[in-house]
Specification:
Elements lengths: L10 H6 L22 H11 L7 H16 L3 H14 L4 H16 L3 H14 L6 H14 L3 H14 L6 H14 L3 H14 L6 H14 L3 H13 L6 H14 L3 H14 L4 H16 L3 H11 L6 H17 L3 H14 L6 H14 L3 H14 L6 H14 L3 H17 L3 H20 L3 H10 L7 H17 L3 H14 L4 H16 L3 H14 L4 H16 L3 H14 L3 H17 L3 H14 L4 H16 L3 H14 L4 H17 L2 H15 L8 H14 L3 H14 L6 H14 L3 H12 L5 H17 L3 H14 L3 H17 L3 H13 L9 H14 L3 H14 L6 H14 L3 H13 L7 H16 L3 H14 L3 H17 L3 H14 L6 H23 L1
């Protein structure tokens, strides 16, 4: 037992006792406001040494006096360089040696213990046995302690205690030494040290610190009751600065004794008395732990949040993060739990909490139903901690994830492996979980439809009254297996028989649950409903009741028994035995309303889920469905708000990624520059995040369209091109390729467009999409004048196209391609059909069809029909941009019919028309004017008309044709020299012309005739 003398006098007596400690008392770990050294020490020392330093005359004395003055006025920043100057300039002076001591003192006052230590050390070397030697040695011990050099501090302070047994500084050195010994895990030595200090200085200023240290020493030795007496004594002293620390220690003691209320009382007292120190943080930490033990997890989370960023030792920081994560997990604040666990893992991987933090992160991911992340964390745990005692727990979690993913093979393998290893090295965890693992093996076999084996395994599971969850789950699994074997009637018969013999008891309840499940699986819905009502009426407080009802409701929903599903989910929602089952009920009602196509009711149920279970993954899933319902009802503004709830409330999840894209889609649908800009920003941020998963291709596709709507054509093209390059398997690839191809056609980059469309056409496309691809391929071929390819594309398009507008265009281009290939009779037939088609979608296409029809008839020499069409179109299509073409065709028909004057009138109209006068058609018309004169043998007029072709138009073929015809006219007029010149001009200017050969032949004849004419005139 510890003597009562260590408890000292009453508090009032201690407070009233005069302070007999030296004015320059030591600045210790326990004293917040220690005083400086007596100024008189410096002055006296200067006087004593003044005679001994005469050789330095006045200089060193003056400098020392200046330094002493700084120190006396507590101007330590000025005193330090002043003492350093004396040491440097007068190294052999005794005042320099003494300056080392006061340099150390100045450093201590500035809390620069690393610099103070060598200053005291040098002083002891230069002046051993000096009157300040004891103080210097103490200061070295104090500095070592302050710097955390525990072993060195212990050596120095122990040496000081031995060397100076009667020093008054023991009042401070002994508490230091006691603390050092506590830190060195020498609680018995620490106890003796604190006892010695209290015996020697029972009323000293350090007495309470010593009592606190003595209590800490006793606690470290396991003498909890005796330690508590000292803590209670300290706590009872009003105004004692260590009341908070004593209350903290008492709170921890009572917490460890599982008296949470008493612990909370002391810890709250500690919080009230402690200032902003790590001790205050520690007190709040233990208060949060009390809340956790009491099940008040929300309060616990709030407390942890208030201290998590406060300065504290690394082990406490790790403990705060880990326990805070547990509390956050309990309140379903999974994101916060993950944040704290990840910080703990990354910053303090070597602490004892890091392993558990990684395991718990896997639990958090599992709770969020993020199976992939959970499995990655399990694998990471197994790699980092292969010998961990929690390895089997992690494998258990992996097995459960495989089951959730419906990977039944790996489910069975994992739990069989756990069972095998539990046989080889049994432990507490495996002993408790063997039944559960057998159950999961059976469940996996049910999933694999190996029902016989599943029943064998499930029947081997021993019933455990302490685990009702397993009992109910086992009943459902067995019933499922029996139904899988088409033995539901057998199952029902045996269960009913059993209940007749054993109507009460635990097994009876389980059998009733089994019966309800079997009736449900057997599709005996009326009997199942009666069984469900019986369970709810007579066993409302039993977990198995609600587990069974939940299963039945889910089964009814899957079997489209919506009225029953609604009834059973309503029971779960209103009367479920836990918040989880009530959540299942609300969630089920939402799905029933959705399947009943009642979007308003589904919306109301979703809002209830959002209010009651805002962090639940089921609410997240329901939100996505509700958002889609709003989209279908064109309620885009409300849909935006729902999708925003998903991606802000469940960041990092696959559904959040999908919600971001849908959010932007609905902003796009609302329209307006502000919404388009917002959608643009949301999607761009999303797709540019490194390593982004989810609907990135869809987001990229939407970005392209939004940019197009914002008239950012270059940026739109870049996004389409990015999708083509990076997401070749995307369902949006074909349309993106089509859009890029369209732009490439506009830019005349035909090879790029052809390559993209070719790749697109190799895929399995819907007819409408394939039609667009084929049409654009045909357009490219037309621009490149590859008319046979146009024919092939349009013929293929016509076999699949369903849209009349597309069909009309395809038929037009098919006829056009045939016309260009000089297949005039086939083309004429199609153009005739198009003219007669009253469903022609594009009115602007009709005059072009009439024109091509007439041109086909020209080649077929059906001149009356040509003239008829031309005259009709000249009257009815006066606004047609190429109306002059009909004038030209009229001229051709009239010319062929021998009406040369009328033909010439039509050709002159072409030449004079505003729209046609610079076209090749005008050049041909001018040439044909010459032809009308030529055929009327009016060669002079013909020559004038031909000359106009050569001088007014830049079409080489017709200039050459005009020159040869003009030459013929000169021949008819006997103007052989003129004919020679015209033929020579043609050969020189148009060497590649189709008329060159004829011109060369005629040139030889004309030259002979011209020579003959010249000879004749000479004679």
């Amino acid at each position: 037992m510890i003597s009562n003398r260590f408890f000292g006098p009453r508090c009032a007596e201690l407070q009233d006792k005069p302070n007999e400690i030296m004015v320059h008392q030591v600045k210790t770990i326990f004293l917040m406001n220690a005083k400086s050294l007596l100024i008189s020490w410096l002055v006296g020392l200067a006087t004593l040494l003044s005679g001994a330093v005469w050789c330095h005359a006045q200089t060193v004395n003056d400098q020392y006096g200046l330094a002493a003055g700084y120190y006396a006025r507590a101007q330590y920043g000025e005193a330090i360089p002043a003492f350093q100057s004396i040491i440097k300039n007068y190294p052999n002076s005794e005042l320099a040696a003494v300056s080392h001591f006061f340099l150390g003192e100045s450093y201590v006052q500035e809390k620069e213990y690393a610099k103070a230590y060598p200053a005291y050390q040098q002083f002891l070397v230069l002046l051993p046995g000096h009157k300040y030697s004891a103080r210097a040695q103490f200061r070295m011990g104090e500095s070592a302690y302050r710097l955390g050099y525990i072993s060195e501090a212990a050596t120095l302070l122990e040496a000081f205690t031995r060397a100076y047994p009667n020093q008054p500084l023991h009042e401070f050195s002994l508490p230091y030494l006691g603390q050092v010994r506590l830190k060195r895990n020498e609680p018995q030595l620490a106890q003796r040290t604190f006892e010695q200090a209290l015996e020697t200085f029972p009323h000293g200023e350090m007495a309470n610190q010593c009592r606190l240290g003595l209590a800490d020493s006793l606690l470290a030795q396991g003498a909890v009751d005796e330690a508590a007496r000292f803590y209670e004594f300290i706590k009872a002293q009003t105004g004692n600065p260590f009341v908070g620390e004593a209350a903290l220690a008492l709170g921890k003691i009572w917490f460890q004794r599982n008296d949470v209320n008493k612990a909370r009382f002391y810890l709250q007292d500690a919080v009230d008395h402690l200032s902003l120190t790590p001790k205050l943080t520690e007190s709040k930490y233990w208060l949060a732990r009390c809340d956790m033990e009491s099940g008040e997890f929300s309060a616990s989370v709030s407390t942890f949040q208030s201290i998590v960023d406060q300065p504290m030792p690394r082990d406490m920081k790790a403990a705060v993060l880990f326990d805070g994560a547990i509390a956050a997990f309990k309140t379903n604040a999974l994101e916060l739990a993950e944040t704290w666990l990840l910080e703990l893992q990354q910053k303090w991987p070597d602490t004892r909490w890091a392993e558990s933090a990684l395991a718990m992160r896997a639990d958090v991911a599992y709770s969020e139903r993020d199976w992939e992340a959970a499995l990655e964390l399990v694998e990471q745990f197994e790699l980092q901690y292969p010998e961990s005692v929690d390895r089997m727990k992690m494998e258990d979690l992996a097995g459960r994830i495989y089951y959730e993913q419906e990977d039944y093979d790996r489910t069975v393998q994992t739990f069989k492996s756990l069972l095998r290893r539990s046989n080889e090295s049994p432990g507490e965890f495996s002993r408790k979980n063997r039944n559960v693992w057998n159950y999961f093996v059976g469940l996996g076999l049910v999933g694999k439809k190996e029902y016989e084996t599943a029943i064998e395994i499930l029947e081997s599971v021993q019933l455990d009254p302490t685990n009702p969850d397993l009992q109910s789950a086992l009943a459902i699994a067995r019933a499922t297996a029996l139904v899988g074997l088409d033995r539901s009637d057998e199952s029902i018969y045996h269960l009913q028989k059993y209940l007749e013999l054993q109507p009460t008891g635990v097994h009876a309840l389980r059998s009733r649950a089994d019966l309800a499940v079997a009736l449900t699986q057997g599709g005996k819905w009326k009997q199942a409903n009666r069984a469900a009502s019986d369970l709810v009426q007579n066993h409302v407080d039993e977990e198995i009741t609600w587990a069974t009802l939940y299963y039945m409701a889910e089964t009814a929903l899957n079997q489209q028994q919506l009225e029953l599903a609604q009834s059973w989910f309503s029971l779960l929602s209103k009367r479920g035995s836990s918040p989880e089952y009530r959540e299942h009920g609300d969630n089920g009602l939402f799905w029933v309303a959705s399947q009943q196509n009642r979007p308003h009711l589904a919306g109301a149920l979703f809002e209830r889920m959002r209010e009651n279970y805002p962090a639940s993954p089921r609410t997240c899933e329901a939100a996505m469905i509700h958002g889609k319902q709003l989209e279908e009802g064109r309620e885009y503004t409300q849909a935006v708000e729902v999708y925003q709830f998903v991606h802000e409330g469940f960041p990092g999840t696959p559904l959040a990624a999908m919600a971001i894209v849908r959010h932007a889609y609905n902003l796009h649908k609302i329209g307006g520059e502000e919404n388009l800009e917002a959608a643009h920003e949301i999607l761009q941020d999303y797709v540019e995040q490194p390593g982004q998963q989810g609907a990135v291709d869809e987001a990229t596709y939407m970005l392209a369209w939004i940019c197009l709507d914002r008239e950012l054509k270059t940026e739109s093209l870049a996004w389409f091109e990015k999708l083509i390059e990076q997401y070749p398997e995307s369902p949006f690839w074909v349309d993106s390729a089509y859009r890029v191809s369209t732009v490439m056609v506009e830019q005349e980059k035909y090879p790029v467009a052809v390559e993209l469309l070719s790749r697109a056409s190799e895929r399995e496309l819907k007819p409408a999409v394939m039609s667009s691809v084929l049409y654009l391929q045909g357009q490219i071929a037309a621009k490149q004048k590859e008319w046979s390819q146009v024919t092939a594309s349009m013929e293929q398009l016509l076999t699949i196209a369903a849209d009349p507008k597309v069909t009309v265009k395809a038929r037009y281009w098919l006829a056009e391609s045939l016309y260009r290939q000089e297949k005039y009779d086939v083309a004429e037939t199609i153009f005739q059909e198009l003219c007669a088609d009253e469903q022609l979608g594009d009115p602007s296409l009709r005059p072009w069809i009439q024109l091509r029809l007439a041109q086909c008839l020209v080649h077929l020499e059906h001149w009356s029909q040509v003239l008829k069409i031309a005259n009709r179109c000249l009257q009815e299509e006066s606004d047609f941009e190429a109306i002059y073409e009909f004038e030209f065709l009229a001229g051709r028909a009239l010319s062929a019919l021998g009406k040369l004057d009328d033909a010439r009138t039509s050709f002159e109209k072409v030449v004079q028309s505003e729209r046609g006068k610079t076209t090749e058609t005008a050049a041909i018309a001018q040439w044909r004017i010459g032809e009308t004169y030529f055929h009327q043998q009016d060669y002079k007029q013909a020559i004038a008309a031909y000359y106009r072709v050569d001088s007014l138009y830049g079409y080489d073929r017709w200039r050459a044709a005009a020159l040869i015809q003009a030459g013929k006219c000169q021949e008819h007029l006997g103007n052989w020299k003129h004919a020679v010149k015209l033929y020579q001009q043609l050969i020189k200017d148009f060497p590649q012309s189709e008329f060159r050969v004829d011109a060369e032949t005629r040139l030889q004849v004309a030259m002979r005739q011209a020579k003959a004419d010249t000879s004749g005139r000479s004679r």
